[in-house]
Amino acid sequence: MTSLKGNLMFGQSGGPTAVINSSAAGVFEEALKHPDVIGKVYGAAHGIVGVMNEDFYDIGQEDANELKLMQGTPSSLLGSVRYKLSDPDKDDSDYKKLLDIFRKYDIRYFLYNGGNDSMDTCDKVSKYLDKVGYDCRVVGVPKTIDNDLVGTDHCPGFGSAAKFVSTMTMEVFLDSRVYYDGMIVVIEIMGRHAGWLTASAALASCKGYGPDLIYLPESDFDPERMMDDVSTTLQKNKNVMIAVSEGVKTKDGLFIPELVGEVKTDAFGHKQLGGTAMVLSEYLAREFGIKTRAIELSLLQRCAAHLASGVDVEEAYQAGAESVKAAMAGASDVMLGFRRKDGPYAIDMVTVALEEVKNFEKKVPREWINEAGNGLKQEYIDYAMPLIQGASKQAVEDGLPRFARLKKVQAGRK
Ligand code: F6P
Fold first, then answer.
1. Domain span at residue 231?
2. Which residues, 6+ apart, have CB-to-CB distance to 17 below 8 Å?
3. If exposure means fewest CB atoms within 10 Å of the residue's CB, which of 25, 47, 101, 304 is most exposed?
4. Per the residue annotation, which of 94, 146, 212, 229 is the catalytic one?
């Protein structure tokens, strides 16, 4: 082990997941096991912005039992952020601030948990510290329900969201068929540019209780073609269920809500999505004159820790713990990734250069989608089914979830 003594800073950014706190717990519990190497363990409030604002917590002062309960607590207890660091060659003010903080608090381990944009942040920080000769190990911990990070077989957070989407889809399927006069149900699922999560509705279909039609952002979305698909389905059945990604776009590059109004943009230039199911169900109601319902799963799909996948909770925890081990062993400027082994489901943890990960998006392979572009093939089922196995580790008190309660003892100057 290459010994680098100092303190560890951990932060999270981007949209949360049901298991993002499990990764935090993995980082914290592992780091606290090595006081001879890692003196203090800090958790940044709202990611990189908390680091710059000297707003972070002393994790060593938390109760061990509360850290354990993080594995069943959804969302980011530390707080998250969407903040884009500038190009350091154009404006290095943020980086200078970060360097001052790193020096002041002797941060020698920087672990950052998030998706593509967060890996970009991680890479920029790593390259800057390297350029100025500040010795610090920088490791990205993957996370995203969108499952679109390259360099890893899948991402922590995806399995739990997929289990929620497929389970809810099965339950809604039954509810949507109780009346004799039929209904069209449109379920909208997250995944800004990639359809991995929307595709998980196919896990419900393969059990016989899922959507007739599934539309992913991997194919151009044509509202007219959807009408034809629905019309064909209605000839066989008076009920139709559709799963659609919030990220589907027309061939002119417009998201569906953009067909009816303006859409806001975040710090990374991403459009704020949502509303696709509502727009489509109104089109369908007008076209077919039967009852429609729009269901936007929205935040529910990424915070449903009661329905988390046991595999996901455990892998998210291990991703955190292994990132600490990798950094202590000398790894830097890398993201921790999962490599799937051949045979029965199992993974190895590997490190991948941040350079190969940041800002890239992994899409559902076209050959896993049916020719008509409205359903998934067995290859997807084989890929996703192992990731939703096992039960949530959520603790329960008085019949309700018992979330971790952190003291959040301020360690920065704030
Ligand atoms: O982090 C991914 C994600 O959950 C996407 O699926 C979704 O489009 C986006 O975040 C939503 O972002 P926000 O939480 O900023 O509204």
1. 167-291
2. 74, 143, 144, 145, 156, 157, 158, 160, 161, 302, 316
3. 101
4. 146
